[in-house]
Amino acid sequence: MKAASKKVIELRPTAPTMQDVARRAGVSSMTVSRALRDGASIATDTRRKIMAAVEELGYVLDQSAGSLSSKRTGFVAAIIPSINNSNFADTARGLTDALEGAGLQLLMGYADYSIEKEEALIEAMLRRRPEAIVVTGGKHTDRGRKLLEQSGIPVIETWDMPPKPVRHVVGFSNADAAAALVKYLHNKGYRKIAFIGGTTNRDTRGADRRAGYEAAMNALGLEERRVISFGTPPISMKQGGEAIVRLIEQWPEVEAAICVSDLSAFGALVECQRRNWPVPQRIALAGFGDFEISSCSHPTLTTVGVNCYDIGNQTGMLLLQAIDGERKGKPLQPETIITDYAVIARQSA
Fold first, then answer.
1. With a threshold of 0.85, does the pTM exceed it?
2. 251 and 279 in contact (C-beta within 8 Å)?
3. How do the residues of the chain divide into helix, strand and coil, expressed in percent and rounded to 5?
4. Which phi and psi (to 5°) does residue 305 adopt?
5. Angle 187-189-193 (CA atoms, 0-180°, nearest 5)?
6. Cα 226 to Cα 182, 192, 212, distances in angstroms
7. What is the pLDDT of residues 124-147, one digit of tens each?
């Protein structure tokens, strides 16, 4: 479903130019151009002023000169956390299918679950002046966000529901989805429920799922938190297995565990089988993402299903509307499209 469009027409900033940087730094455009080229001889104080202006304005050097008189470069950029995650692969496929026939190519980069790497990719992509950019998640470095805000092109954040979107959003609340899983387990009679996730907030969607777990536990009056932080995101099957052992050693009374992803849940399941801990009799397990492995395991894994292809396809269709608006000089007002998720009840819980 779509959120109501804003009634107030917003004046969206255009991408800052080299002339803007020159005015801010009090130098000529030619001096700015020289300062931003490798090996150019520029006085230290002058370079410092120019780079400060670049940082303040969120300017990105245009390396695609000659192709922008019509503001049509024929490609859009997309940044995903991982290239070996089937969920994000499905999202990319949905995005590509939506663009098919529109004369647009997709340039993709992966950030390895790092907002610092995402920032570098945003800058590298914007140097080629894409007609739009798609990013995964709503958390960015301060500079990364500024680059997106000042890009002058449509920006779509996916797989998340950020409180302060840069522009457009296609996604869902990871916190709400995890909370729905806690409530499902509670309705099944489980009370001593744990959460297994990574050691850092590098996976921001994983951090949101943990926050959703904690909020739901609090709302249900289940005060004791049993949280295992193990491994650097994304959590692997092996780390999921090691984490479930640590969980049961620390809280032997635990009845159920929510894992941050299906891969970690499958690793936990295999380790339970290795140790003759029957699932769900000894401990119930649940994952997140509805990976193929969750429906093929024995027992099958309870999880949260997300329509990954639809996220990409809806993003692509919104992106085409936004690009069309840019070309006609009528920028599309910010839109939020909320995609579906659902708890998929299987044998493990």
1. no
2. no
3. 40, 15, 45
4. -90, 135
5. 95
6. 13, 8, 14
7. 999 988 999 999 999 999 999 999
